[in-house]
Amino acid sequence: MTEAERMIGTPDTPEGGGAEPERAAGQEGVEERPQPRGKRRIAVLFAVAAFAYLLDLGSKLLVVAKLEHHDSIEIIGDWLKFEAIRNAGAAFGFGEAFTVIFTVIAAAVIVVIARLARKLYSLPWAIALGLLLGGALGNLTDRIFRSPGVFEGAVVDFIAPKHFAVFNLADSAIVCGGILIVLLSFKGLDPDGTVHKD
Predict the structure, then answer these.
(1) How far is CA 37 from CA 32, 42, 43, 121, in A?
(2) Which member of 12, 56, 142, 171 is catalytic?
(3) Is 71 a catalytic residue?
């Protein structure tokens, strides 16, 4: 083979694998680094949490100012009313003797979600954890700042369906977030965006 033939043939037939394997390796490297997508999911988590928290906080302030110590308001006859009560227990009025314990649990949930957020690449998980975080923060705010004292405060509840416990928007956010997490786990979707099948 002449020198000219070797110069012409070199780009088409590289030795040791050539440029094409390097291009494939580069593509794999791009697929394995989803940091920008992860940052967007964290933003969604905190946006959902902020929305749920502010909605809960605003509703409680309004209920305390306008509804507490007044007659209940019928929304759908006897089936749904707005009725202000103070709840020292957990969601839906359970466990009123363990207020401090529920406060600690709520704080622990917030810490766990904050740590999990670093590995978050799934939009549905971001929404679910955001609902949990916003709801936990909403009720924790009541535990800390409302009477009878710090970490023992009674949560403001006001949504009163017939034949059911009275609850608030924070409780609703927690329940919706929990249901979504169960569904995502059932489908095999992990917080990091991967899908596994048992």
Answers:
(1) 12, 9, 10, 6
(2) 171
(3) no
Distance CA 59, CA 77 (A): 21
Q: Which of 12, 71, 78, 157 is catalytic?
A: 157
> Could you confirm whether 142 is annotated as catalytic?
no
pLDDT tens, position by position, 22-59: 444 444 444 444 444 556 689 999 999 999 999 999 99
Distance (Å, rounded) from C-alpha 106 to C-alpha 112? Answer: 10
169-187 and 123-145 are packed helices; what angle lies between their axes, rounded to 10 degrees? 150
| H or E element, residue 137 | helix 123-145
pLDDT at 157: 93
Strands 155-161 and 80-87: antiparallel
Task: Please name the residues in contact with 188: beta carbons below 8 A apart, sequence gap of 6 or more.
Answer: 195, 196, 197, 198
